[in-house]
Design brief:
The protein has 95 residues and is of the alpha+beta class. The chain contains two helices and five strands, in the order ββββαβα. The protein has one domain. Helices cover 16% and strands 18% of the residues.
Length: 95
C-alpha cells in the first residue's frame, strides 16, 4: 500500500538539502514545553514540508500497531506532545 500526503514532493530521499523557512508556532520556552533534555518543535521547510523535533518511538508504535504500513529505511515515527501541535496549528496556513 502506498500513501501519498500533500505535495508531490512529500516523499523525498534523505540526501535532499533541507532548509528551514521558519518556526511554526511559539518557541518551546514560550510554551513551557521544554526541560533539560527535551524541546519539541515544528518548522516549515523552504519546499513546503515540515520538520518536527520530538521523541523517536518507531519500535513502540510498530509493536502496538502491527498493521501499520512499513516504513522506508530512512523513515521514523516521531511523537510530540499535544500542546506543540495545537500551538503550531494556528500558524499553518490553509494553502
Amino acid at each position: 500500500m502506498s500513501i501519498h500526503l500533500g505535495r508531490k514532493n512529500a516523499c523525498r530521499s534523505p540526501g535532499d538539502p533541507l532548509r528551514i523557512a521558519r518556526r511554526i508556532g511559539l518557541p518551546p520556552r514560550s510554551r513551557d514545553s521544554h526541560s533539560g533534555s527535551t524541546c519539541p518543535d515544528v518548522f516549515e521547510l523552504t519546499d513546503g514540508r515540515f520538520a518536527v523535533i520530538g521523541t523517536e518511538e518507531t519500535t513502540k508504535i510498530q509493536q502496538a500497531y502491527p498493521d501499520m504500513r512499513e516504513l522506508n529505511r530512512y523513515e521514523i515515527v516521531v511523537v510530540v506532545d499535544r500542546e506543540t501541535l495545537t500551538c503550531a496549528r494556528a500558524f499553518i496556513p490553509d494553502k
